[in-house]
Amino acid sequence: MSATLFKRLRFPVSLVLLFLAASGVKGETFHLKLRSESEVSPGTKRFHSLTRREDWDASRTAVVICDMWDDHYCRSSAKRVAEMAPRMNEVVKKARAAGALIIHCPSGCMNFYADTPQRKLAQEAPRLGTTVPLEGWCYQDPEREPEMPVKIDQPCDDEDALRPRVRFYNRQIETIEIAPEDAITESAEAFFLMKSRGIENVLVMGVHTNMCVLGRPFGIRQLVRQGMKPVLVRDMTDSMYNPAEPPFVNHFTGNDLIFEHIEKYWCPTTTSGDILGDDKVFRFATDIRPHLVIVTAEDEYRTEETLPAFAIRELGRTFKISVVYGDEEEKWNLPGVAVVRDADLLLLSVRRRNLPPEQLALFRDHIAAGKPLVGIRTASHAFHQRNEGAGAGLDEWRDFDAVVLGGNYTGHHGNEIKTFAKVVPDARPHPILAGVDPDEFATAGSLYQNTPLQKNTEVLMMGRAEGIEQPEPVAWVSAGPGGGRVFYTSLGHPGDFEVPAFRTMLRNAVYWAAGDLPVLVTPKP
After folding, report:
1. 209, 177 Cβ separation under 8 angstroms
2. Quick one: which of 488, 491, 470, 471 has its CA closest to 479?
3. Which of 225, 253, 276 is where one domain is finished?
4. 166 and 211, same domain (yes or no)
5. CATH number of the domain encompassing residue 351
């Protein structure tokens, strides 16, 4: 007997749900793409961002809505809640219609809902025993997770929007509809209600991700500790973070860092589009960050360490940043490389990797689409072997250096020879060289041999090796075959990242390559 027929016969909703749970009747199926972080190799503290597909029976699923209040002491936070709420309501409606249990959790607002059947439904959930004690607040677990990646000492991201830290909310925002069959709670009643119905899968959404979504008694830490399977709906949440606090990144980049933290140490994430089936991802109107994807897969220069740190420090206020690492065991594999499809800009540091055709096609498509590229050091010989062809099932891009970068890499001088670099005087007006000291500076790695470059290049910086007569170009710009802006530098040794002139040039190159893409701030000189 269907839930619709029960409703026509005017059975109480609670009896309908109990009957369906007991009878094994299934709801619709959620086809979810679950994103999680898997450590590249134990102890590296580098993670592949991987996505797997999983189907959930909606009737065995709960949706927990955390603290979507009608107001907040931080006005900018309240505005983001109001902006997100219509999309969230559509998600909730779809999940409810599919057969999921909806649990509204506006903490501190139970008096407003005291006499409602939804509140009583939660209160009447049978108290069940647990192997791990339920907690009123689940604090950071140092045995499971490091400190959160953002600070929240001064949490409001808009000082003009900050009000005294008193209670400004009275109820859940009205945009999110509460149906007769839903439940309302602010406590572990949510857990009892789910367990009494045989529910283990939980979609979590609401605010704030780095505080209540993790710590509340119905939040992610509690659910994991109690053996549940929570998934954060990452585009239906927001964080309490101020860019004036460490790590000094854009508010939405702070969100991304928190999502990664949760994916590493607690549970996967998904998006509203997976539930609604429209493949859309909600994005706040003020989140206009271009998406920078860093791909690092080389064994010589530790760019898997230097580039992510550089990006957060120098670019985190402007760009959405994703990092793809090479596989530690399978050299010809770049786990998580599908994110290149979403890149507005690529920052490439790869050395002699032949890839499966479907992976290499992502890079070919990026260039063909006229999207920009910044390459450093070994990117000149990224996708082919020196004297061998691609192995079985693999592909190569042997003329990538010449056709895309405009280069002509033929080798390098000895590692023991001291090297130096200097801005080309005629190139000083180029925006990539803004704030770059024009004087010669020592470089840390061997000098690459690139003479002569292709004709469509403009050299910005020349290098020399001590005792070697022939100087070599070490930084230039060109246009890719699809028309996108391209910058390449043969610098990129770990020691180069300690040199202000190199860091400034590389930062400027990313902004220059982004071109007319929207940016939020101008890089500091």
Report:
1. no
2. 488
3. 276
4. yes
5. 3.40.50.880
Residues 261 and 202 in one domain: yes
Range of 415's domain?
Answer: 291-514
The sign of the dihedral angle between the CA atoms of 461, 466, 467, 468 is: negative
Q: 473 and 461 in contact (C-beta within 8 Å)? A: yes
Please check whether residue 2 lies inside any domain of the structure. Answer: no
Report the DSSP pairing between strands 472-479 and 458-465.
Answer: antiparallel
Q: Is residue 6 part of a domain?
A: no
3-state secondary structure of 290: coil
CATH, residue 221: 3.40.50.850
The verdict on 457 and 377 lying in the same domain is yes
Residue 497's region, left for phi above 0, alpha for psi from -120 to 50, else beta, is alpha
Number of domains in the chain: 2
Question: Do residues 363 and 270 both lie within one domain?
Answer: no
Note down pLDDT in tens along the chain; length 525 residues.
Answer: 334 333 333 344 444 444 444 444 567 999 999 999 999 999 999 999 999 999 999 999 999 999 999 999 888 999 999 999 999 999 999 999 999 999 999 999 999 999 999 999 999 999 998 989 999 999 999 999 999 999 988 888 876 655 666 678 999 999 999 999 999 999 999 999 999 999 999 999 999 999 999 999 999 999 999 999 999 999 999 999 999 999 999 999 999 999 999 999 999 999 999 999 998 999 999 999 999 999 999 999 999 999 999 999 999 999 999 999 999 999 999 999 999 999 999 999 999 999 999 999 999 999 999 999 999 999 999 999 999 999 999 999 999 999 999 999 999 999 999 999 999 999 999 999 999 999 999 999 999 999 999 999 999 999 999 999 999 999 999 999 999 999 999 999 999 999 999 999 999 999 999 986 555 444 443
Q: Could you tell me if residue 23 is inside a domain?
A: no
Give whole-number Cα distances, 243 to 151, 156, 250, in Å: 9, 9, 6
By C-alpha distance, which of 27, 36, 10, 445 is closest to 199?
27
Domain shared by 53 and 193, yes or no: yes
